[in-house]
Amino acid sequence: MAWRSSFNKWTKLDSINGSSLFSKNTRCHPQQRCGFRKAQRQSETKGNAPEKAGAGGYKDGVRTQPGAPVPLRKPDRLFRPLVFTVGFTGCSFGAAAILQYESIKSRVQIAMEEENKEQQDKLLEAHDTTYWHNWWNQLSDFQKQVILGMSGIDEWWSGLSEGQKTVTGIIAINTVVLCFWRIPSMQRTMVKYFTSNPASRTRCFPMVLSSFSHYSIIHMMANMYVLWTFSSSIVSLLGKEQFLALYLSAGVISTFTSYVFKTSSRRLGSSLGASGAIMTILAAVCTKIPEAKLGIILLPVVSFSAGNALKAVVAMDTAGLLLGWRFFDHAAHLGGALFGAWYILYGNDMIWRKREPLVKFWHELRNGSSGRARPGGGGGQV
Description:
single chain, mainly alpha, two-stranded antiparallel ribbon, 63% helix
């Protein structure tokens, strides 16, 4: 399973816990990006004393006094993330419903056009064969190799399932973000917007962006492998539009759960990674198909049911939360898993199956716009 709170482990980037992504001569310390600009300046004027919890300085991004406990963050800092979570989730499912409507309408139109095109192709088949044969013979060897390579890629893409095609886009975004982490001039921006921390001044947008952010290639590969493994099952169950809405919402909800736990337990720190959202997908599949058989890639002879796998993962994260383990962001894992199970049991009926009024409104809005543009014309029905 992916490691969301292992950011400091993989990256050796203790930007919030006392160390910096940048050199010691860097003017802007990451702690200044987390709402502690004034406190950091005071610390620097005192000779840059070691940042230890018991000797004053910073611990987990919070300025401490010698021998004093880390102060509890104000609960009102969670209000904006809560509003953002609710609003973003609603917009995600609303946009997914409209996207599905447009997708179905587009497929109907394409099917009608292809039917007409097939009839025309039959009449021109003999001429087309001769034309393309002559065109191919005029190409150079290099051009032929390029076309054959593109044909192979197209054949590979056609062989993927709908879920794998959808997840390929998510993997591409994560790869681009991973490359940005390797650009020194981007470090401060990446820390500010692509790591989530309830102590930061920027708390809302990182709830989404951190779910596409990995600093370690091993971290990303582990997460994306799990997502790829479950992609075909979840998209076949929900459809690609509903899957995308669930995945995006899961990233925000799992991060908000992490915010609540970090604030209440005073264990403030940064997190990043897609593991919270992936836990939602895993939990959704395991809840919907609990009898499915799963295995471990390194132990092919070992298999277990999806239902038992979900119970084991939830038990491990619960233990980690209670025992204070810091290697994983167990709160985000649990939040994602509970959201995935809840959505399959109740959320699908409460949210997705009640999208008809929104789709009807969108349909009438499009037809109304078409009717004003073309008097007497009506939009097509889906």
